[in-house]
Amino acid sequence: MAHDDGCGADSPYASGVSSEGELTEPAGGTAELAAALRGRRALLVASTGGHLAQIVRWAERFELRSDSVFATFESEQSRSLLSGRPVVTLDYVPPRGLRPAISAAVRLHRETRRERFDVVLSTGAAVGISAYAIAQLRRLPMVYIESVSRFDGPSATGRILEKLPRIQRYSQHAAWADRPGWRQGPSLLDDYTVVPAAGPAARNGEGRSIFVSLGTIKPFRFDALVDAVRDRMRPGDTVTWQLGVTTRDDLPGTVAGELRSEDFDRLVAGSDVFVTHSGVGTLLRALELGVRPVVVPRLAERGEHVDDHQVQVARELDRRGLVLLRSPGELTSADLDPSGVAIRRSGDAPA
């Protein structure tokens, strides 16, 4: 039996747009969702990293009002990506951090109590629980779009939200979109194809420029990737490391904990090779910039993340030809050469 969303015909959450033009509960699939959200003012709630990168993309794709308000954590990514946009800064909510999520909801309500919104939209992670609390308190419709990284079922946040009423839940993958309480939504991965690179694919023995990014997820280190790249460098190679919490003092080149978005973009686009974990935000941005990255997923068994969803992301993108998937042990020095391929986004003109 399908999950009851609590959206009967007489409910203030009944599907569609009212005769007064007020958004109630978006109905149907992708087209109906986009039509219901277009031109609306939203409260957009997401953790930093891939969740924030995705919600920014959805705000653009759904053509939400420019004065929609983002709620997220303080980071170089959020400062750069949301520059010039209305933002509420929340204290960090760790993955599966239910108690901090409740505290974040209290602050979010306090900071936005004089604002009027048409809808609450979240992409997770645990801060999606905060978004739900606000939606219920304000009696606003809520849309939750599960991360593109979830290929075989919802995240921990998604599993909590699927038990709650008055919320529209969308999967980006058809494989489980028929799960009770969920609907098929659009997928950000469908935007990209692989094409031959315009530039040369080799550097004729010259030193290579390498950019390594581990994202900013706390508190998980990723020394296995750092060691793999360091041990496969050649004389003359130059490398920039963005390490997050994986602090090291034994590395050649330039080392940073976090980077501004503009510096990150410059390094991704300007390096011979980009090596990264399988964080969705990082991967989507690389694809946006036309770069096929070398991807080494984090593993839960090594204490590098809470689960192995990064492996699923990397396998699917590798299947599509959009990344080169490696484990730390499989990575070779040749993998750090220029790839000879590029990524094109749907609608972009050929280079």
What does this 3D model show about the protein?
By secondary structure, the protein is an alpha/beta fold. The protein folds into 2 domains: 30-186, Glycogen Phosphorylase B (Rossmann fold, 3-Layer(aba) Sandwich), CATH 3.40.50.2000; 193-345, Glycogen Phosphorylase B (Rossmann fold, 3-Layer(aba) Sandwich). It is 28% helix and 17% strand. It contains 10 helices and 15 strands. Strands 3-2-1-4-5-6-7 form a 7-stranded parallel β-sheet. Helix 10 links the parallel strand 13 and strand 14 (324-325). Helix 2 (50-61) crosses helix 9 (280-288). Pfam families: Glyco_tran_28_C (PF04101). InterPro entries: Glyco_trans_28_C.
Overview in brief:
InterPro entries: Glyco_trans_28_C. This protein is 28% helix and 17% strand. The chain is α/β, with parallel strands linked by helices and 351 residues long.
The named CATH superfamily of the largest domain? Glycogen Phosphorylase B
Sequence of secondary-structure elements: HEHEHEHEHEHEEEEHEEHEHEHEE
| Major sheet attributes | 7 strands, parallel
The beta-strand count equals 15
What's the number of structural domains? 2
The whole-angstrom Rg is 21 Å
Number of helices, where a helix is a run of at least 4 consecutive DSSP H or I residues: 10
Measure the end-to-end span. Answer: 50 Å
Low-confidence stretches: 1-22
Overall average pLDDT: 89
The CATH architecture assignment of the largest domain turns out to be 3-Layer(aba) Sandwich
CATH topology of the largest domain: Rossmann fold
**Class by helix and strand content?**
alpha/beta
Shape: globular
